[in-house]
Amino acid sequence: MSTTLAIHGGPKVRDTLFPAHVTVGAEEKARVSEVIDSGILSNYLGAPHENFMGGRYVRECEAAWAESISAAHALAFNSNTSGLIAAMGAIGVGPGDEVIVTAYSMSISAIAPLFYGATPIFADVEPDTFCLDPKSVEAAITDRTKAIIIVDIFGQPFNGPAIRALADKHNLKIVEDCAQAPGGHLNGTPTGLLGDIGVFSLNYHKHIHAGEGGIVVTNDDTLAQRMSMLRNHGECVTGAWGVDDLTNMLGHNMRMTEIEAVIATTQLGKLDGLITERLDRVAYFQEQMRGFEPMTMPKVRDGAKHVYYVHACLWDTTCGTDRNAFVDAVKAELPVFELREKEGVKLGAGYVRPIYLLPTFEKRMALQGPANGLTKSWQNYALGLCPVVEDLHFNSLLSHEFIVPSMERSDIDDVVRAFAKVWDARAHLQTPNAA
Ligand SMILES: *Cc1c(COP(=O)(O)O)cnc(C)c1O
């Protein structure tokens, strides 16, 4: 093998694209035809009527989802984003309230409270699981705190018992963003049920998908009813249903179509198998990487089933080689995935930018700007707010998706070869302070 790195003009470890990761096929196609033949692609009515809760395929999907994790309620939404916003509305957050959130996730996990005028308060994460740290959450609690949005980031369940104890003590609701962790569990409690409301995603990038979609689960009858009203023009049914608590009960249209529902139901049936395949890829990758000193493989919380949406490793920042330079060089050695060419090589230095560094926060400009006494906490959105998140993002986290089920062992072998090639040639990498 050539030792000239691809980033310096040498040949890549591999040119052929990685195989497309596709989870849909003949079964989904057959069921979509069934819906089209029925002539009804969505069957909601925004009125006090049995179809307020949607058509037969949406209900079938919800029943399957509820059964799969023994939840009292599952509600189909058009996205996880909608589900998180509805969760905030249902809990009754409003101006002046605070919701504790993580900075290291997809943006909606932290901005959902803003849609109701509540303030996101960022807590820091555990340095080895990357989920919100109970100690940091506790330190962020004030008498304005109403809820915590906690993410099972990268597929790892959050510390349910510790966060539950805090929530019970301070009378807070827990919203679990389990978009990245369907099929996971902690000590036998399925993800989705580790908090008061769980929100899954069915967007194209997730373990299973329906194009777009979200499933909200809860064992709380009142929250379930409130979320069903937020999903579908609830103001039209509160009178007929004799609903007393009208706080936030203005409905959106967050409805899933019948087409997405049958795809989601079919995909749910494949979830366990897809997770098993992922875990197999993870085990193989980790076995091949054993002895690769600068990288620590993901830690799995005691008692947890981690489902590896992303394989998030830690780079040893004292190893003498800069993580960013290393990642750039490995990326140059590897191909993109078929069908997802434009998304680039599925390897990253860090994950997403800490959410409080987005322009919305930096320029203090959500809604109509700081209002309703939010000014003080808005001043805190700046570099330095969550040191662990910042260290992970800017220095030590290294994440990749080469563990998706379409990756065969020979494909993973190429990934491992690329890591080894760059490590062996690390003396030729630019260090950040050189030049
Ligand atoms: C994908 C994702 C979302 C958003 O899901 P959508 O269904 O696209 O709205 C939210 N949170 C996390 C952690 C995600 O990974």
From TrEMBL:
Keyword terms, alphabetized: Aminotransferase, Pyridoxal phosphate, Transferase
CDD domains from the UniProt entry: AHBA_syn (cd00616)
Molecular-function GO terms, alphabetical: pyridoxal phosphate binding; transaminase activity
A Pfam short name: DegT_DnrJ_EryC1
Gene Ontology biological-process annotations: polysaccharide biosynthetic process
Translocase listed as a keyword: no
InterPro entries named in the record: DegT/StrS_aminotransferase, PyrdxlP-dep_Trfase, PyrdxlP-dep_Trfase_major, PyrdxlP-dep_Trfase_small
Record carries keyword S-adenosyl-L-methionine: no
Family: Belongs to the DegT/DnrJ/EryC1 family.
Protein name: DegT/DnrJ/EryC1/StrS family aminotransferase
Organism whose genome encodes this protein: Gymnodinialimonas phycosphaerae
